[in-house]
Amino acid sequence: xADQVIRIAGDSPSxxxxxxxxxxxxxxxxxxxxxAALVADERAxxxxxxxxxxxxxPADLPTLALPAGExxxxxxxxxxxxxxxxxxxxxxxxxxxGFGGGAATDLAGLAxxxxxxxxxxAHIPTTLVGQVDAALGGKTAIDLPAGKNLAGAFxxxxxxxxxxxxxxxxxxxxxxxxxxxxxxxxxLAGPRALTQLEADAPALAAREQAALARAVAMAAGLxxxxxxxxxxxxxxxxxxxxxHTFGHAIETVAGHGRIPHGLAVAAGLILAVRASAVAxxxxxxxxxxxxxxxxxxxxxxxxxxxxxxxxxxxxxxEAMGQDKKGSVGRPEFVLLARPGEARLGVALERAAVxxxxxx
Length: 359
What we know:
Layout: E1 4-8, E2 14-18, H1 26-32, E3 36-41, H2 42-54, E4 63-66, H3 75-87, E5 95-100, H4 102-114, E6 121-125, H5 128-134, E7 139-144, E8 147-154, E9 159-162, H6 172-189, H7 191-205, H8 209-229, H9 244-254, H10 261-278, H11 287-298, H12 313-320, E10 333-338, E11 341-346, H13 350-357
Parallel strand pairs: 2-9, 3-4, 3-5, 5-6, 6-9
Antiparallel strand pairs: 1-2, 7-8, 10-11
Helix pairs in contact: 3-4, 4-5, 5-6, 5-8, 6-7, 6-8, 6-10, 7-8, 9-10, 9-12, 10-11, 10-13, 12-13
């Protein structure tokens, strides 16, 4: 599959490159900046640092190595990243490179947004979650004890370079977590995308690069269209939170980092479709069966019990009350009428939600 270039227009334009030639754009990015610095997941750096250097990354580039995974998304690591930007002598014409999974690019993006009130950032995501969702669109955040992604800012990356070769080293749980975000994207993209994903399910489970590149390009194309229309998440972009009100609550109650984000979202997608039926907005009655079969084919959870932790419905409801997309103490849900047609800002009664959450 040839490399694809997906452009996001607007006040802060962004370019997403998908394919095994994506890193060919790295040298040009570095040449346009007066200085650059790398903020990287330490595990990704260990596995793939040589590949970056082979594509023009200077060996002496200032580098901050972050703890792997969700452990980097807290105030202490954000403070480290800001001090690092200062020590690296970055200006507003410099470039922060975020390298790693969605947690690393979230942290790098937020540090770039805050330092000197905004330094350009580009991302090189190394996980499927990062390539299909987290590194795209400019949403950056860290976690607080009260909830997932509660402190953040919008800061659009100038470029995202997504090379599927990075995905070959992912642990199986992280690969499956990325597939959860792929399913979300297909549900929102529409019937053709969902049918293609169902056909590609065996190849995706086997990590075939052509199928992975198709999935990443589909998700990036969806996000580009939605972000262009609504860059600050005041309207249609909220559809991208399908499954996330449930999923973020699962992550918070389980303890941040215990359940991979994409697996929590996958469970949240099942709950969101069930909630759509409860709210009488689901217009395709067979969708839950299709989604369940797709999750089984991809090795994704089909319910809360598949996550392997005890999650009390009342605790999940309380965590949903912290959700940044609702009002105080009143979560709002993204639900579905059919593939490609979301319903935004739907409120549900606590009793109805807790009934859905009973294993």
